[in-house]
Design goal:
The complex is a heterodimer.
Chain A lengths: L8 H6 L8 H15 L2 H28 L2 E2 L5 E2 L1 H32 L3 H4 L6 H29 L8 H25 L6 H13 L12 H7 L3 H14 L4 H29 L2
Chain B lengths: L6 E10 L2 E11 L4 E5 L6 H8 L7 E6 L8 H5 L2 E4 L11 H11 L4 H14 L15 H13 L5 E5 L7 H16 L3 E6 L2 H7 L2 E6 L2 E6 L1 H8 L3 E7 L4 H4 L9 E4 L4 E5 L2 H11 L3 E8 L2 H9 L7
Parallel strand pairs in B: 3-7, 3-8, 5-6, 6-7
Antiparallel strand pairs in B: 1-2, 1-4, 8-9, 10-12, 10-13, 11-12
Helix pairs in contact in B: 3-4, 4-5, 5-6, 8-11
Classes of the chains: A mainly alpha, B alpha/beta.
């Protein structure tokens, strides 16, 4: 009656050991399958859009009406809403990247434990890391596109800046995605997320988000340099305002370095936790 | 071209820190064989399976799976294995069908082919009507069948099953066995671990009895019984006293006695003769049971304790 769907000798003899061309992308695809079948994710995207709008209106126009235009280090003066919007965009890229790479990843690693059977396939821990990172970037891009759409609607960014602003957001997402995975492998329980949240909020408040860092006292400026989000904001903001300089490239380089170190550490830690 | 062994281990060792979990075991598994690792929890069965599955590195010795070294050719080895882990670990965020299709994609199987294999396997495992359901809504037996289906999605040359029926109720267990029989008949090489005697005896062509990280005996189930146990066993219970106190009085009745907490086993070629002789001793016997020897007796003989401790 039922035929056993298993290789017979003929078939296994003619079939060489299958090589998977893009193993990491098979994992990304798993997330896409879940994304498309679960309604909750769409709500998340909608909530994100609403959040972006609320932030831009509240901070930009609300607070902006009180503080007036901001003078940039190069002397140009911009409305407060246009000054703060790119920083909120960079922060949103960070938040999205961390939500995937810390929260979701931790859940899949420690609770659903979906990577254990996946490692019985040709995929290696490195492929899992790359696959999750690609997925994180897709999420960041999705969020950034809707955020930028709101900015365009409100006239907070020129259309010509968009092709540079979006890749900049991806770079911020890459850096935080890689660091987030390192953090996720180090977390012990859900309680530790309070700590992650606190750090995230501190970065949000003190990375030159709301005021130019040049207004901070000297010692604090040094501390701010350690914040990857600061470099993210200093990358996205000049690109959005059309005031990019050589310094902007420097900030991009810092993010590339953070992403690189984070990825190597994440892959190494995953290799250790997954292959015992 | 002669078939090389599907798996060959020589002096295989696995240590974690100072504890040795697998202590220099040797075995060969031939293509098409259905081999069982039989042993108590902590004997090193699962660790051996993980080394074959190339997800745990060996600490010493040699290991070849399908002619490849799992520590250097991991992805190539794994592409030809089907693994059914002890605790299912299905993707709880996905449906039954999605569990199979996404898993097939990890092996580089095309989308259309993944889908057709997944549907075929769901049908084979009698799960077609649950294809769209989330894994969380499936019973334990269904989940285990889905896990076995997942292990077959790449049409593996060797299937590794780690305690395939642990935790299942008798009905679910028999349904899984039925499928494993079919798998055996299809000529697939299967390696399973178990601590169930009946499972080992009924399913496996050959058994490797493991204890404390070493192989203490190997052979076909019947062969092991013939070699390590007499053909019959008499189980004796007395009304009074602990077996340890009166066991000595049964010496000489059979070839050998084994003292258990609640009874004494007397091994003999002719169990009825022992029962008759026992009657002549005039002990206050509460029950006497004559039965054929089983694998449990083999294990008791080899390790001095029962396999499944209550």
């Amino acid at each position: 009656m039922t035929q056993t769907p298993v290789a017979d000798d003929q078939r296994s003899a003619t079939r060489a050991a299958a090589t998977v061309r893009y193993p990491a992308l098979a994992l990304t695809e798993r997330n896409v399958v879940f994304f498309r079948s679960g309604g909750a994710y769409w709500w998340l995207a909608l909530v994100g859009l609403a959040e972006a709008t609320a932030y831009l209106l509240g901070m930009g126009w609300g607070v902006g009406s009180l503080v007036g235009p901001v003078t940039l280090p190069d002397g140009t003066s911009v409305p407060y809403a246009a000054f703060v919007a790119p920083a909120l965009l960079a922060t949103a890229a960070m938040d999205t990247a961390l939500a995937e790479s810390v929260v979701s990843f931790f859940g899949k690693l420690r609770f659903a434990r979906i990577y254990v059977p996946i490692l019985n396939t040709p995929l290696r821990p490195m492929d899992v890391a790359v696959g999750e990172l690609v997925w994180t970037l897709a999420r960041v891009l999705l969020f950034a596109v809707s955020f930028v759409a709101v900015m365009l609607t409100l006239g907070l960014v020129r259309p010509s800046a968009v092709p540079l602003v979006l890749p900049a957001c991806l770079l911020v997402g890459l850096a935080f995605g890689a660091v987030g995975m390192v953090v996720a492998t180090a977390l012990r329980s859900w309680q530790d997320f309070d700590l992650v949240g606190a750090v995230q909020f501190t970065l949000f408040m003190f990375s030159g988000t709301f005021v130019p860092v040049s207004t901070y006292p000297g010692w604090l400026q040094w501390v701010v340099e350690l914040s990857p989000l600061y470099h993210g904001i200093e990358l996205v903001r000049p690109l959005a305002l059309g005031t990019a300089s050589a310094a902007t490239l420097g900030h991009a380089a810092v993010l590339v370095a953070v992403a690189g170190v984070g990825f190597v550490l994440a892959a190494r830690r995953m290799h250790r936790t997954m292959y015992s | 071209m002669p078939h090389p062994p599907a798996v060959r281990a020589t002096g295989l060792v696995k240590t974690y820190g100072t504890s040795t979990v697998v202590d220099g075991i040797d075995f060969e598994i031939h293509p098409g064989e259905f081999v069982g690792f039989l042993g108590p929890n902590g004997a090193g069965k699962s660790t051996t399976m993980r080394m074959i599955g190339s997800v745990t590195r060996r600490s010493g010795g040699d290991l070849a799976v399908l002619g490849l070294d799992p520590s250097t050719d991991g992805p190539a080895v794994r592409s030809r294995l089907g693994v059914c882990p002890q605790d299912d670990l299905l993707d709880i965020e996905l449906s039954s069908l999605q569990n199979l299709t996404t898993y097939a994609r990890y092996f580089g199987i095309s989308r259309t082919e993944s889908r057709s294999r997944a549907l075929e396997l769901l049908d084979y495992m009698s799960l077609s009507d649950r294809a769209q359901d989330r894994v969380a809504s499936l019973s334990g037996g269904m989940r285990r069948r889905l896990t076995i289906a997942r292990a077959l999605v790449n049409r593996p040359d060797v299937v590794l099953l780690d305690e395939p029926t642990t935790g299942l109720d008798p009905q679910a267990r028999h349904l899984v066995w039925e499928r494993l029989y079919a798998l055996r008949d299809s000529g697939t090489t299967v390696v399973l671990t178990t601590h169930f005697m009946d499972e080992a005896e009924q399913l496996c062509d050959r058994l490797l009895v493991v204890d404390k990280g070493t192989v203490v005996a190997s052979g076909a189930p019947r062969e092991l019984i013939d070699r390590y146990a007499s053909s019959e066993v008499v189980e004796v219970r007395l009304t009074h006293g602990r077996p340890a106190e009166w066991a000595a009085r049964l010496d000489g009745l059979g070839e050998r006695t084994e003292v258990l907490p609640d009874r004494v086993l007397v091994y003999a070629q002719d169990g009825d003769a022992v029962a008759a002789a026992l009657e002549r001793l005039g002990l206050d016997v509460s029950s006497v049971l004559v039965r054929r020897s089983s694998l449990e007796d083999v294990f008791l003989r080899l390790t001095g304790r029962a396999l499944v401790e209550a």
